Every structure is written in structure tokens, then in C-alpha cells.
Amino acid sequence: MTKKDAAAPVAAPADDAALLGPSQVRELAERLEVRPTKQWGQNFVVDANTVRKIVRVAGVGPSDVVVEVGPGLGSLTLALLPVVKAVTAVEVDPRLAGALEDTVRSLQPDNADRLRLVAADALTVTKLPGPDPTALVANLPYNISVPVVLSFLEHFPSIDRVLVMVQLEVAERLAAKPGGKIYGVPSLKAAWYADVELAGRVGRNVFWPAPNVDSGLVSMRRRKPPKTTASRKDVFACIDAAFLQRRKALRGALASWAGSADAAEQALVRAGIDPKTRGEQLDITAFARIAEARPAGVEPSERRARRRGNAS
Fold first, then answer.
1. Which among 178, 242, 256, 292 could disulfide-bond with 230, CB atoms 3.0 to 4.6 Å apart, if both were Cys?
2. pLDDT digit string, tens, across residues 205-220
3. Are 80 and 53 in contact (CB under 8 A)?
4. Per-residue pLDDT for 243 more than 60?
5. H or E element: which one contains 269?
6. 217 bridge partner residues
């Protein structure tokens, strides 16, 4: 911790009266005629201690501008507002988006001016109103959790911290290290942007309705991507190819990506990787070296297929 961090004022967390409890969540949902849907992965947090824990583990404070994806009825939003400088809430459900500001004004009138609402699909958001966000803190819908995290890290380089609650299996995959069975595409793509850790587990009984799976907290601290002349897009394409057939050695798995198995082997050797290695054994730095060593002028197989189809 720096001297600046140590001297920074710490805002008091919201008390129970300023948060949503189980009965309030159900009453609010009934009044709005909202029935949680699988389409949008809606499971609303009804436990005050859980949202306070998320805010605490996120490490956000009075200087932070937090973007929250999927605020729902406002449980986490209400926990964030007393602690941070501002919250930009991105909500796709029009009924929930329309009610969030009223809920904040009702329970925390003094903090209402700290909320900015963006009624949109988070996967389409590339710009946000107001100051640049410094953190992403959210209870993410399970069905879009990884794409949302990666999209916001890509489009908002000002975000230096992430704390998201996701399905436990997804959390474990994001935080997985090389060599394990659950290590794969999400682990590597997240590692391009940040150091990723599993920051805790959350039971099912803190949600309404209770999901069929446990949840996990994922913490990310942004760092510089690996030094490479390859673009992020090229590195990600290499990762996708490697895990499309994850049981194959990279010489075979990367054949289409490189143009042929021989070309893949040559790229791997140039990158200092044994061609018999499998993708799950390598970290993000190794994949960056492989992408950099790809033969120049090789056209991705899917693009070649489209071109051939257009010509026929």
C-alpha cells in the first residue's frame, strides 16, 4: 500500500436500512411485474452482507468511478454508492433500468446524484457517460459473464480493477493456471489483461431465485499485456485454434491457423515451444510468442473458407 492509499479517506459501508433485503426485493419485483428470466440470467442478491463483502473485496473507495453491469433491482448498486465517487449502471432489462433511479432516490437520496444509468446490452457498450471508469464491480449474468469482462477490459483501459460474482465453474476457469483441466480460453484471454485470482465462494441462498449452482468471486488487477509484435487479435486467434482441439498437440491443433502442420511446427520451434506440447500447458506469454512467430501472409482458415464460398 502506498502512502497515498493509506491516507485516502475510507467511506462507511451502507447500513441495512439503505440496502435491499429479501422482502424488499420480492416486493419490488412484484410491483414491477418482474419475473427473473433465464434469458438474461437474472438472480437477484437478497443478502446485505454479500453485497457489502463484494464492495470490500473489490477494494474500491471515494476516488473510484465504478461501472456495474446488470444492476437488476439495485442490491449491489446501493452497497457501492456510499463508498465510491460514482456508479455507472448498465442494465438491459427496460423495466429494471426504469426503476433503478427511483429505488436509489427512495433508499439513499443523498447518493442519487452519484448514479448514472445506461439502458443497454452490455456486450454492445463501447462508450460510457461521465468520467472514465476505474473499476468493474458486478454480479454478472452467468450466460454472458466472460464476454462482458473481456469486452470491458478491451474497451475501457482505464479499468484497473475487476471484482465480479459469476458461476463458480466460470470463476474457477477464469482464475485457472496452466496445466489444469479447467485451464483454457477464458483463463488465457483474461490473463492478457490482468492478474486473475479466485477471491471467494458464494452460496446459493443469497439469491432470489436460488440458482442451481454456487457462485464465485473473481478478482482482477490490470497489468501490461505481454511484450510482443503480434496484436491482441492475433494472439486470441492462436488461443482459440489451440483449444478448438485441446487434446491435440499444438503441431496439429494449430495447423489450420498456421496454414499447415509443418508451418505450425516451424512457428512453434521459432517461439521456443516443443511442437508436441498441448495448449493447456502454456501461459499467455508463450501464446504471444507463438502468434509472433506465425508465418507472414497466412490467411485464417475461416476467412479462406468464406472467400472460397463467395467465389463459388
1. 292
2. 999 888 888 999 999 9
3. no
4. yes
5. helix 261-270
6. 165, 200
For position 298, what pLDDT does the model report? 63
- The two beta strands, 135-139 and 161-167, are parallel
If you write DSSP's letter for every residue of 5-43 in order, what string do you get? HHHS--PPPPPGGGS--HHHHHHHHHHHT----TTTT--
Give the separation between CA 221 and CA 159, rounded to whole angstroms: 9
Under a CB-based contact definition with an 8 Å cutoff, are residues 281 and 179 in contact? Answer: yes
Q: How far apart are CA 254 and CA 298, in angstroms?
A: 12
CA distances (Å), 101 to each of 47, 66, 90, 107, 117, in order?
A: 20, 16, 12, 10, 8
Task: Give the Å distances, CA to CA, from 158 to 54, 114, 148, 279.
Answer: 20, 19, 16, 30
pLDDT at 299 over 70: no
- Residue that has been written with the C-alpha cell 482482477 in this structure: 220
Q: What is the Cα–Cα distance from 164 to 71, expressed in whole angstroms?
A: 12
Cα separation, 267 vs 247, in Å, equals: 19
Q: Which residue has the cell 502512502?
A: 3
Residues in contact with 300: Cβ distance below 8 Å, sequence separation at least 6, in sequence order: 237, 256, 257
